[in-house]
């Protein structure tokens, strides 16, 4: 469900914030998913790992797999987009993607992208959980990443199937690492860092532009101008498709971007300024009102 939030900077009810001049949209470069058929997980090798270093503003084109996946960046921030939502994934978090869900991965910053593929027996879903515990794993989930999980992911072999076979001792080690990864995922806490996306093409274009740069425009009228629809029509579509106002929905984007900025160890005053707040205290008050947590705790500081 959308977070019912205080108005973001630039809204008539928000605290004063500096005006931002419109900026040119960021240009993405596109790459394909890297040979997933060479990393197919199996009963014998239930967890497979891929490693790829990608530059900021690179997007792995939309694709899907018949197995489950976890995306994690040990450095840099990712944005994953699925048919009904988008998720910001800093290094302190990971995203679980169920089998068959189409997804695109965008590098918000230069990223050390680690992908884990998980074997899922027919009709099952999750990191080896009991049937009664599978339901939450049948949807995308942002998970806290422990230091142990991050270290385990780095240690996983990432050679494709067309490389020389792993020697028995390395396969044995991979099985131990896989078991520990599955256990850490089962223990990981889930965090809401996603924003809902609509199906209407005009509204989705607007929403994706806000996610890419939430402070580019100040008002709904400015954002709506690029869609060819009136602000009133856009406001109605937000209510119909997302059960939210534009202000409430944009606040979720602001919070997700704040987490991404905090992942770079930026202090609160810099985060507040970049998101358009005229003081750290105004930004901190917004976080407390919206999510009921102190900014340091919410941002993972």
Automatic annotation (TrEMBL):
The keyword Heme does not apply. Pfam families: AraC_binding, HTH_18. It comes from Alicycliphilus denitrificans (strain DSM 14773 / CIP 107495 / K601). PROSITE patterns: HTH_ARAC_FAMILY_1, HTH_ARAC_FAMILY_2. Transmembrane segments: none annotated. SUPFAM superfamilies: Homeodomain-like, RmlC-like cupins. GO terms for molecular function: DNA-binding transcription factor activity; sequence-specific DNA binding. The lineage of its organism: Bacteria, Pseudomonadati, Pseudomonadota, Betaproteobacteria, Burkholderiales. Keywords: DNA-binding, Repressor, Transcription, Transcription regulation. It comes from the Bacteria. Residues 201-301 form the HTH araC/xylS-type domain. This is AraC protein arabinose-binding/dimerization. InterPro entries: AraC-bd (IPR003313), Homeodomain-like_sf (IPR009057), HTH_AraC (IPR018060), HTH_AraC-typ_CS (IPR018062), RmlC-like_jellyroll (IPR014710), RmlC_Cupin_sf (IPR011051).
């Amino acid at each position: 469900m959308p977070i019912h939030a205080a108005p973001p900077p630039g809204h008539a009810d928000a605290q004063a914030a500096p005006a931002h001049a419109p900026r040119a949209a960021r240009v993405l470069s596109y790459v394909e998913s890297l040979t997933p058929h060479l990393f197919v997980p199996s009963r014998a090798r239930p967890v497979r790992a891929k490693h790829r270093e990608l530059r900021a503003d690179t997007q792995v084109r939309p694709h899907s797999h018949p197995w489950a996946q976890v995306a994690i960046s040990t450095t840099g921030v990712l944005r994953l987009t699925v048919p009904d939502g988008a998720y910001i994934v800093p290094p302190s978090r990971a995203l679980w993607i169920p089998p068959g869900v189409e997804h695109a991965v965008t590098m918000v910053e230069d990223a050390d992208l680690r992908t884990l593929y998980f074997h899922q027996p027919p009709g099952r879903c999750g990191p080896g959980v009991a049937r009664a515990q599978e339901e939450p794993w049948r949807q995308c989930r942002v998970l806290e990443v422990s230091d142990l999980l991050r270290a385990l992911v780095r240690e996983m072999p990432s050679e494709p199937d067309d490389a020389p076979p792993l020697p028995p001792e390395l396969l044995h080690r991979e099985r131990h690492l896989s078991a520990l990864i599955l256990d850490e995922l089962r223990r990981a806490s889930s965090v809401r860092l996603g924003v809902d996306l609509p199906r209407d093409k005009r509204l989705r274009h607007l929403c994706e532009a806000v996610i890419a740069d939430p402070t580019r425009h100040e008002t709904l009228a400015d954002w709506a101008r690029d869609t060819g629809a009136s602000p009133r029509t856009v406001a109605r579509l937000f209510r119909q498709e997302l059960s939210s106002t534009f202000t409430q929905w944009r606040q979720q984007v602001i919070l997700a971007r704040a987490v991404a900025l905090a992942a770079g160890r930026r202090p609160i005053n810099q985060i507040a300024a970049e998101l358009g707040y005229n003081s750290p205290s105004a930004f901190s008050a917004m976080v407390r009102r919206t999510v009921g947590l102190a900014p340091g705790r919410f941002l993972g500081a």
